[in-house]
Amino acid sequence: MKTLDLTAASPQDQLQTLEQAFLTAAPGTEFQLQTSNPPDELLSTMIETYWGQFDWAPLNSGKPHWKTLLRKRGEPLADSLHEFMADDHARCDALFAQAEESGSTGNLAETKQRFQSFLTGMLRHFNMEEKGFFIEFDKRTGYRGGGPTYVMREEHDQLRGLLEQMGGFLDEGNLERYLSAGETMLILMEQHNMKEEHVLYTMADQMFQGECMELIKKLLRIK
Ligand SMILES: [Fe+2]
Ligand SMILES: [Fe+2]
Fold it and tell me: What pLDDT does residue 143 have?
């Protein structure tokens, strides 16, 4: 992953540097953007100018800088909520596995760092669902917060509790308990994601056919 340090650049220069790097990068290139403020303007420009050609995900929020993943896509983004959301599941799964790997080798500092990226990814994913996708889904189905999204929200709360526990164990320096809670996390996360991918996201692709892109644009702006 290439680091693009924009922390000292003016907003105008940030944009110029980012566009230049993005345009000259090979497809598949990943950048870690570092900014001293939330990169909202950069995201807006990317959405307006390069829509469908990039992936975007926060890696941390402001401690000490904002770090964001920007990937230049090889294939253009599909008009599919299923693909977009399932890709984000896979991205979070990979972050989880990296933190587990550090934990199992006993490297506390690295585990903390990697867990932070996983935590940021998971909380943002839950927010994209709860503040965006589930709301639109309920409007279409008429469930009004009941039905499948109700169950998913409850599971999010359970997963949030477990994330908090895992973070607490890391704060105590207790990798053994962290890894043991991680085993539960892996099982619950897999079950939860499978339900969403098999049921909700599949239904959504049928309901939002031709409108998925607009919804994805909204979801990307949710923190
Ligand atoms: Fe979910
Ligand atoms: Fe999800």
Answer: 83
